[in-house]
Amino acid sequence: MKRLKKLNKNALLLMGFISVYYLFTRLYGIAGYMNEYMDYDEGTYLMIARLINQGYLPYRDIYAVHPPLYYYMLALWLRVFGDSYVVGRALSLLLGMGSIIIAYLVGKEVRDWKLGVSFMALITMDPLLVHMNSLVYHETSIEFFTLLSLYFAVKYFKSKNMRYAYASLFVAGLGSTSKFTILPYLLALYITIVFSLDKKLWECLKRASDILLTRKQGLAIGLAYMAMILLVISAIMLYPSKLARLFFIVPGIHPITVVGQKFAVALIIIFWGIFTIYLFKVIYIKKLYESLMILLKNWKIEFKLALAVLTPKLLVELPLGFLVSRDYLNQTYFAQGGRYSPIINLFSLISDFLGALRNGNPEFLYYYTPILVLIFLYFLATSLETSVKLNQYLKGLALTNFFVYFFIAPILPNMRFMYPMALVLYLLLLDGLLGVSMPKKKIMTGALMAVMLLATVDFGIVVNYPKGELKLGWAIHSKDLRNDLGAYIKGNGIQQEVYFSVNPMNAYYLNLSIHPYTLDNFGLFYLAYQDAGSLMETLKKNNVSRIILSKWMYVIKSSDKLLKENYGAIEKEALINFTLEFAESYSTGDVIELYKIGANIQNLSITSSKGMLSLAVNGEKIANIYIADGNIKFNTKTKVSLKNGSYIVEQSSENATIRYVLDLKNDEATIVIPEEMALVINFESDAVLIKDGGIIKCNESVKGPVTIATPKFVLRIVGSNITLIDTGKLRITGFIVKITKI
Asked: What is the pTM of this model?
């Protein structure tokens, strides 16, 4: 009894330290940080929750791509505690805190309090959750429901009490009403429980896990890859064409970029299957038949287990989804299913992993740190001739998760979407490692090494990531830009207008009214296959008068052909047909723009981009403009504001800011240069400067007007003194500069 009390005191002390670490890493930036690279989803969920509280319904009034539970949880949370992004993030913080407590209970149920504390610590220090628990994302709810389901599953496997099996499936089913990424885990859990009901079925799963989760399996995989490499070499030597080089690839080593490369994936899986059957002498046809007969025989209990899954889905999704809109299933499930292909996702994950290392971007792999640490410690332990015994039920659950996530489900190969599988693997490996017979000193050394590695990565997420010092995307000026735009909107009395923001977080943070259905424009483009033209027509028909463009759009449109086409069309229409009212950008590329929708055709237009004034012709940005005072360049930040028909331009260097006026009428920009300063125009493509029919050479100065020409445009520039200081780069002095499209 004394020993038990001592252990409990130790557990409580360690849990206290872990909880403090959790709060420190999550609270560090929860109130202050904004990141346009990441907060599109945050803005979408927060705005949907706000609209729900205003009486709008997802799936009917709002295009929404996830099941309803999280939306309504968030809406209730905001209604009770206040409508702000900080309050919304606090819900994730609370769910995450609940998750680490459940993680302790899971580990304690599997083995003892030491595993409970270890599992709790691993999840607390997981860099992915350090990030996700501080954001308004579904992932924290999926973490919570997966761990709670896992707790009941472990109790079932230990006791064979069916109440726990039903409870585990019910909780996982409830989690699936929050986000569909838990569905593969749910299916894997269902399969594992069904197989555990019969001794013969369980022996089949046990045999499969023993075959696939063993060192010898590495030989089968190695032979499969060797065979594939030899086949590729032979094929190219025999038929050295561009088509052969495109289709004969080694999946995992080469990225999969076209549909036809699926055959290469099929081939390597066939090779792997052949070598596995050969090495392990697998007899499968008779076993498959016997297993099928047993499954058919046990249909009643299997049906009851399926009801445990379906009941929470009916309770939540029927009233809040199916009865709200006929399009519910399409928005939340069918459209999502086309985002990726099963089987290919495994090899894409391997390719992306290797590519990040090959391209010098190891920070892209930060969310793999826990699993890499555990695998490293596992093989280190086995290399010391120490037996690492893995829990058989967890092995079976891990195997079925792997099979479902990579061979059945169309899940994006990203740890965010596969996290339920990761939690099962964490528990499996941690339990095995804590069961080894090794000197205490070696165990403590391994544990300390793991803690130091994870803490180092966590430091990067908490400190370096928000500074923009990692290659992970972070728009460090997001909040400043939004505050400046908010001040302009308030100062000009246009708060009551109806807005469309490409990144919904802009509209949410500034408390702007929007047209609900077009809130998730990414979903409309990528999943509903709506085009920019129909979207813009919808906005105009619903009296949307302003459109906000920002950094997120410019980043995301470069990632996909469809997105580039649609967001490019929105940008072009804004530059040509709408009136720029406000734009601000930094040299880091962070930018925000406000346009007034309406017929105002301008073949020559301006905005702010890359910390400078940006000049566009026919909707295409062609040049960047900034003021120079000697060696001082005012190109760190540029803000453009429309006031009384003219633009006030503010440009900043590292230490100073200057202001000047720009008028834009009839495809002519007139710029009043600050006294004794120069205007620098840097064209983004090669341009020829012409004066009186002759071409001006580099470092040659002339009096205006001059003509500058490229295959795409011709401009006339007027200034007192114009110098070509580099190819396509002009320095202009004089009180007034005029730029006219010819």
From this structure: 0.95
